Amino acid sequence: MNLSESALTRLPAPPMLSPMLEETVTIEIHERAGQYHRLAMRAPRMAPLVQPGQFVHLRIPPLKEALLRRPFSVYQAEGETLSILYKAVGKGTSALTGMRPGQELSLIGPLGHGFTVPAPGGEFPLLVAGGYGMAAFYLLAQRSPQKGIVFVGGRKQQDLLCEDEFRALGWDVRATTEDGSRGQKGLVTEPLRAELAKGAAGRKLFACGPTPMLKAVGALAEEFKVPAELSMDEHMCCGVGVCLTCVIPVRAGAEWEYQRTCTEGPVFDSRAIAWEAMGAGQVSCPKFQGSTPEKCGEKPGP
User: What pLDDT is stored for residue 126 in this prediction?
Assistant: First the structure.
């Protein structure tokens, strides 16, 4: 059975809109905690179309030697304005920090299959974010008619982002740091487990962050029999499904096949992901016979 025909692992399809190329104008760059920044751009055609969990592919003008665009989760989209969050850690993101208001940036988007917005009176949402994973959640939190709990975790206090913004939307934000500098000490999945243990019925998980965290969230979803949508953290090159560098193994009946994080994802039903085949190397699969692309590019985040 092909995964695309399986009701078990198929997420509702987002609106079928073709991505567009838009020359945007930088409005402002606002420094957040530590190395994190928020970049706002005027994108009158693209901003109204963005769905929660989607991303954009951005060309960075100061980085002339770079041929590839960089993927970034859309943080906010209001009216004609679109913004991203990023961490200045490499040449690309550091170059972004040098942008000035009025400078142009080239975007392709909106891209990818995003989150399913909870229905009124539907499942109680639990958002699980690892550090910059919060960037993918603001639109979901804003558009969800039901306000639930946000579990945000990081190595240290400086890795926790946007707590006040989510509280302003009416969400209960619970922080966890590995060094204990803020909130509960430990991993973000620990308070999540405690919450599910109180009663998991009627809950739904949404997660974005490092792959080990996503795997742990998927395991909790299976243990407590709750649905979960995971935004997979994979390297990308083209962003439009051509180069096959961002593929992950997903279940297809008793077998598994590769699907592209940039098009079929980045958001997947947790039950679809074949964790046992992750990093399998040059293994033949039903969809891309003999093709296991090497990783390159950037991940869709700050």
Answer: 99
